[in-house]
Amino acid sequence: MKVEIYSDIACPWCHVGKRRFEQALAAFPGAGDVEVVYRPFQLDPHAPEKPLPHREVLAAKYGPQSVAMDDHITRLGADEGLSFDFDTVVENNSLLAHRLLRFVLERYGRDAQARLKGRLLEAHFGEGLDIGDREHLTDAAVTVGLDRDPVAAFLDGDDLHDEVLDEIEEARQRGVTAVPTFVFEGQWAVQGGQEPATFLKILQQVAAETEAGAGAAEADAGSGEACADGACAV
Length: 234
What we know:
Layout: E1 2-7, H1 12-26, E2 35-40, E3 52-53, H2 54-62, H3 65-79, E4 90-91, H4 95-108, H5 110-126, H6 134-143, H7 148-155, H8 161-173, E5 178-179, E6 181-184, E7 188-191, H9 196-212, E8 232-233
Parallel strand pairs: 1-2
Antiparallel strand pairs: 1-6, 3-4, 5-8, 6-7
Helix pairs in contact: 1-5, 1-9, 4-5, 5-6, 6-7
């Protein structure tokens, strides 16, 4: 079974959704046959390429309700063992981080990509990592066991720039409008950071449908406005 996870480093629900999906996968008997690939998506492709305080950025978009939004996701994250420290979060354009994730997938494989994805989310939301800073990204890659020199060399160039933009456009053409979105076997789409029990049920259903040779279907778990329950919308 192939699972493509469309997400953005700048999306707090992507952090929660990754953790919940991994919990479900750990409980799924066929986990060894599940191929997980992280695909790029940008909530704000026009975000300036400069670090800005998260509180300032969110307040400009959503006003006073932004504090309540942050508090809500912080409580949910704590329930999953995740740390959100929005006072230290730095927002930046996420394209460079997505290019690095694509590079790591091609050079080191899916497991390395998943480790880096987790580290970027963890450090961005809990430690003030700037996802647009080459040194920060290189350090994150080294932390998860990757080689510094090839990562640094890649980040100093423009490789995979167009390829990642094409992937993001392809996602939009496939109907991805909010993240995280989980696409199973290229046919079944589930949106949002669902509970582990929900993800486990979906894994079981997709496995059964695939084994039975069923046709394409789509399960839509609902969309959210801004970063409401479950997903961050464009």
